[in-house]
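User: Can you help me understand a structure? I only have the sequence.
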Amino acid sequence: MTTGMSDPYPHHRANVGIALFNRDGEIWLGRRDGTPGPWNWQLPQGGIDADEDVQDAALRELAEETGIQAQHVSYLGEIDGWLAYDYPPEVREDPRFHKKRHLGQKQRWFAFRFEGSEADIDLQAHAEVEFDAWRWGRLSEIPDLIIPWKRDVYQQVARAFAPFSKE
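Assistant: Let's start by predicting it. Here is the structure, written out as tokens:
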């Protein structure tokens, strides 16, 4: 993984997050497959492979989770450094999540403009389907849609990427 910065969160899993804006300044929201409401909407995110450039990881994760290929987006910006959240004890101690060896996730966040058409969005594009539905929404609503223990990160994302929104 290529980051070019020191690691303030050595016990957190390296991850990328993607804020995808349409031409009207709305943000792409995906509903987590099989996750009950009310906090089942989120932005695309996923792990960074060993020796993978972080922006390349963001584009790969975007394609895997939404079907949107790199040629259908343009780079808007990124948040410098890591944003992180800890898994709450009930998640770390749940036997279904025994593979979560990390305290939480540290994320590098990128903003892209969607330049394609809605026909370019395919939630079934990857074998591991993340989302069962999607919609365009307001950037300001994302902190209230995410599970509470990720909310601080989403508030930081909303503040940092506000210039790309037309709210």
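Now, to help you interpret it: Helices lie at 54-66, 89-92, 142-145, 151-160. The beta strands are 12-21, 27-32, 41-42, 45-47, 73-78, 83-86, 104-114, 131-137. Let me know which part you'd like to focus on.
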